[in-house]
Write a structure and sequence with these properties.
CATH class of the largest domain: Alpha Beta
Strand content: 15-25%
CATH superfamily of the largest domain: Response regulator
Distance between the termini: 37 Å
Number of helices: 8
Number of strands: 11
Order of helices and strands: EHEHEHEHEHEEEEHHHEE
Helix content: 25-40%
Bound molecules: calcium ion
Structural class: alpha/beta
Oligomer: single chain
Radius of gyration: 23 Å
Length: 223
């Protein structure tokens, strides 16, 4: 993940980029608005952290030009304390979030990660073993054969495959598929999982029960 930090306070910029590097986040630093505008035209930035008060053109103008080009790169604005109008103006002009200076660096890291997650492209095809789920076409195949899944079986399987080889709880599954509004009990989740296990016998994957925690989907070793 490449973060662009636009900050004219060189000491602050240096300190922040070190903190981010310590969290495995690579950061490019530029110190004025025109350089930021040029750098953002390369379209290789995962998240832009943008100070408002900058020499040359200010953060608002950098943001305006970015959105005028149709870019959807997430922007986190750094604003001064008490500058409520700045925050409103930033959000109205297409900023995704803001932090008020001075801020705690763990909060900066958390917000950058949240913005990067929100913008990350979801793969259209989820695959494991001989199983593939095309989430655009809503078709599932096991070893080339089409799988007949109910809407809810599909939702449970899609959620498990979005979290490969990680334990997910029944409640996490319920929360993920509840947008449909109906009540869903943990017993119902168990029923969907047992039906999925029957349908996935040739799929080269196993949905393991982790007692007291939930489920884990993993590929079976090749026979
Ligand atoms: Ca500044």
């Amino acid at each position: 993940m490449q973060v662009l930090l636009v900050e004219d306070d060189a000491v602050l910029a240096d300190g922040l980029s070190r903190v981010l590097a310590g969290h495995g986040i690579a950061t490019d630093v530029v110190g004025n608005g025109l350089d930021a505008d040029l750098r953002l035209q390369r379209n290789d930035v995962a998240v832009a952290v943008l100070d408002i008060g900058l020499p040359g053109i200010d953060g608002f103008e950098v943001l305006r030009r970015l959105r005028a080009r149709g870019s959807t790169v997430p922007v986190l604005l750094l604003t001064a304390r008490d500058a409520v109008e700045d925050r409103v103006r930033g959000l109205e002009n297409g900023a995704d979030d803001y932090l008020v200076k001075p801020f705690a660096t763990p909060e900066l890291v958390a917000r950058i990660r949240a913005l990067a997650r929100r913008n990350a492209p979801r793969p259209a095809v989820l695959a494991m073993g001989a199983l593939s789920l095309d989430t655009d076409a809503k078709r599932a195949h096991a070893a080339g054969r089409p799988l007949d899944l109910s809407v809810r079986e599909w939702a449970v399987l899609e959620y498990l495959l979005q979290h490969p080889q990680r334990v997910v709880s029944k409640q996490q599954i319920i929360d993920a598929i509840l947008p449909w509004g109906d009540d869903l009990t943990q017993n119902a989740v168990e029923v969907y999982v047992s039906r999925l296990r029957l349908k996935l016998q040739d799929a080269g994957v196993s949905i393991r029960t982790i007692r007291g925690f939930g489920y884990l989907i993993e590929p079976l070793p090749a026979p």
